[in-house]
Amino acid sequence: MSRSTPVKTAPAAFSHRTFLRELLTFGFVGFLGTVITIGGANLMRHWLGGSPLTSVVVPTVASTLSSYLLNRHWTFRHRDSDGSGREVVIFFGLNGVGMAIQVLCTAVTYYALGLHGGLAYNAGLVVGLALASAFRYWSYRKWVFTPAAA
């Protein structure tokens, strides 16, 4: 009778913990970015008289800058960074796609549906942020903050 080899469970637990930590810190960074984006969009739109779409773009750019720094140095600090600028270019390119998702949701709410009130504007903004955040998390893990080389 032969013995079976024991199954190693430590690496699976480690990657589960790593994934959970990444997800929680990404969520916190996203929360801060959401405060910057929604707060800035409402400030620009209501108090400074900005257009609905410009009021999404400017705070999203500010949020993107802070998100890159926090994600690189906190959320994904254990992942590779080649220091060549490739990571930054891809990060901002993917954020451009995320911003397009947000702007599209805001444009549909404001222009296509004709909903101009503050509640509708913020609902469109939140839906856009949620869709863009899901895209960003997936794309950051896949193309920007890649696993460290073994």
Provide a descriptive summary of the structure in words.
It contains four helices and no strands. It has 150 residues and is an all-alpha fold. The two termini are 37 Å apart.
Task: Tell me the span between the first and last alpha carbons.
Answer: 37 Å
Helix/strand-derived category reads mainly alpha
Largest sheet: none
Strand content: under 5%
Question: What is the approximate shape?
Answer: elongated
Radius of gyration: 19 Å
Order of helices and strands: HHHH
- Averaged pLDDT, please? 83
Total count of strands:
0
User: Helicity, in percent?
Assistant: over 70%
Count of runs of 4 or more consecutive helical residues: 4
Q: Which regions are unreliable across 5 or more consecutive residues at pLDDT < 50? A: none
Any chance you could write out the topology, listing elements then pairs?
Elements: H1 10-47, H2 54-75, H3 86-112, H4 118-144
Helix pairs in contact: 1-2, 1-4, 2-3, 3-4
Compose a concise summary of this entry.
The two termini are 37 Å apart. The chain has four helices and no strands.
Labels describing this entry:
4 helices, mainly alpha, 150 residues
